[in-house]
Each structure stands twice: as C-alpha cells, then as structure tokens.
Amino acid sequence: MIFSIDPVPGRHGKKIPLHPVPEACVDMMSDTLIRVLSDKANVIGLACRTTDLVNLACRLHGTTPTASAALGRALTGGLLLGALGKPGLRVGLKFEGNGPLKKILVEADSAGTVRGFVGVPGIDVMVKDDGKLHVSGALGTEGFLTVFKDVGLDEPYQGIVKLRTGEIAEDIAYYFVESEQIPSAVGLGVFVETDGLVSAAGGFLIQTLPPSEETTIDQLIINIRKIGSVTDVLREGKAPEDLLSLIFEGIPYKTLEKKNLSFRCTCDRDRIERVLISLGSVELTHLLEEHGEAEVGCEFCRAVYRFDRSELEQLISDIECAGPSGGSPPNA
Ligand code: ZN
C-alpha cells in the first residue's frame, strides 16, 4: 500500500507580511496529534492538526501561498515521523528539488515540537489548473528526500530516496516503502486563504505491520478514499480523533497517545556564540574591524542574535585564552 492524499485547495493569495516573533519558542495548545493502534489488524494510525504552528512558521518566514503549502506539509510530515519513534528521537526531513523553492528542511522530535524553513520563501504563487496550489511545481519533481533519525547514538540514521512526485505526502510514503519496507499511507493538507492565512493544516500516517490482513488494507484504502481531503475534514471543525475514526471505520482500535504540538526552535544565544567562536579569532577580529559588530540569523526561526563590539572583543579574548588549539568554546 503506497499512496497519498495531498490536496491543497488553496487559492491565489497575497504575500504574508513578515512579522518576526521575538521569542523562538511559542506553544500552540490547539494543535494536537493522536496515535492509535489496531492490535488485531496490526495497523498503526497517527493524525494531527497543525494549523496554528504552520501559520506561525509561515509568518516567521514570510512565505507566499505555494511556499506556505509546501512548508506546512513538510512540517506536518515531520511531526508524524517524529511521533512514530521512541522518546528522545529527533528526525529531519530534507527535500531537495529542481523547482524554484529549491529545498525544504524540517526537524521534529518525539515530544511534538518542530521547526523548519524553505529555500526560497518568496516564490511566485503557483496554481494548478484545478485551482489548487502547485506544490510539486514549486519543489520540483526531480530531486531527493533525505530522512535523518537521531536516537542519541553515535551515528544518526540516514535514508535517501528520489522524489516520487514532489507533493510531499507521496514522497514520505515512498520513503517508508523504499527505505524501511513499511507499507504506509500518508495524507497531508494545507488550506491557504486568499489573504495568505492558513485556515487548516494537518495530516495522517497509517502503517501496516506484518502479518497484515488483505481485507483490513482494502478497508483502509476505501475509508481513506472516502475522506477526500484532510483539510476538508479539518475545516468542518473536526479533530485528529475524528479523522482517525473515519480512516478506521469498521476496524477496531485503541488510542495510545494524545499530545500537543508546537513550532519550537532549538537555537539560543549560547549556540550562536559557539558558532562565532568556531570561526576563530582571526575571522572574528576581521569581522570586528570591518563591521564593528556581528549579526547572526537562525534559518529555522529567523531570530537574529546581535553581538556588539565589546561582546565580540570578549569572544576573541576567550578564544585566545583557550590557547593555540582555539576554536573550543569557553566553559564547554
Ligand atoms: Zn532558531
């Protein structure tokens, strides 16, 4: 079983003005994820609503509607993958395509937080003939999806597959089949209003485990086809629980977990300081002489960290005190 439902019935809209949110951490209490299991049928199901966190991410990055749809689908996919793993798991999804968006990078964890960005957030709005936002046109259909998984071991896991359609959901489903040999169905949806606001975002991930029953898989396929679009369900005011009850109609299951989701960046001033220190004293002195200060932006959340003259001088002095090996952060 490999297919995806990835409709984006969004329409042409205006560019969202960029209003940076000062704090890098914002909790979104109304975005949730639910995980269920049908032990009789060996099926795992996850569904989530991500409307608020996708809106926040799009506002932070100033994405135009097609880029918003692409980023929203990838953020939602990342959260679904993260929720499959054990506590402490961090996953990364990197989509690289031959379209104008160039790439999408998202990182999520098993606790339900995610961050991400796209290569070119201000791409022209691309719409398909049927009026839906053209995500595969933006990302491109030629390219790669790389999945990273870090469970705290020395070597993080990495799997690479070719992009199947560039529509995100189908690419993730294809990754599971190709790279992990797990039959999966993935549905992702982002509805962008004409004013650029995301009024619904969410998705589901269904996986069958061996031994799987043919009749159960057939039933799941019928149920998923009946839903039509994830955003249609969410825009009716339904919750992730309702989405799963539609997908599992006729198949008994039990709920394992429900959690809140949020957009949260892991950057902070200490980390940025370590990046500056890693440049070395010569480079930092050059920066100081040239600009008198340093400004470092985080790609994931657009937070900007400023270091004035005295702070830079302190960093240079710290590096020089650390000795010729340099580069190692103070108090590390
Ligand atoms: Zn950040």
Question: What would your notes on this structure say?
Answer:
By secondary structure, this protein is of the alpha+beta class. It contains 10 helices and 13 strands. It folds into 2 domains: 2-264, Hsp33 domain; 269-321, CBS domain Like (Alpha-Beta Complex), CATH 3.90.1280.10. The strands form 2 sheets. It has an 11-stranded mixed sheet with strand order 1-9-10-3-2-11-6-5-4-7-8, sandwiched between helices. Strands 12-13 form a two-stranded antiparallel ribbon. Helix 1 (51-61) packs across helix 2 and helix 9 (281-291) runs antiparallel to helix 10. It is globular. Mean pLDDT is 88; it is low at 1-28 and 326-332.
What descriptive keywords fit this protein?
globular; Hsp33 domain; single chain; 30% strand; alpha+beta; disordered C terminus; 332 residues; 2 domains; eleven-stranded mixed β-sheet; CBS domain Like; binds zinc ion; disordered N terminus
Largest sheet: 11 strands, mixed
Unreliable residue stretches: 1-28, 326-332
List the ions, cofactors and other small molecules found in this model: zinc ion
Indicate the CATH topology of the largest domain: Hsp33 domain
Q: How much helicity do the residues have?
A: 25-40%
* Element string (H = helix, E = strand): EEEHHEEEHEEHEEHHHEHHEEH
- Under the CATH scheme, which architecture of the largest domain would be assigned? 3-Layer(bab) Sandwich
Task: Give a quick precis of the structure.
The chain is α+β, with helices and mostly antiparallel strands and 332 residues long.
SSE blueprint and pairings:
Blueprint: E1 2-5, E2 25-38, E3 43-49, H1 51-61, H2 65-84, E4 90-97, E5 103-109, E6 113-118, H3 135-139, E7 143-150, E8 157-162, H4 169-180, E9 184-192, E10 198-208, H5 214-227, H6 230-235, H7 240-247, E11 254-264, H8 269-279, H9 281-291, E12 294-297, E13 304-307, H10 309-321
Parallel strand pairs: 1-9, 6-11
Antiparallel strand pairs: 2-3, 2-11, 3-10, 4-5, 4-7, 5-6, 7-8, 9-10, 12-13
The protein binds zinc ion.
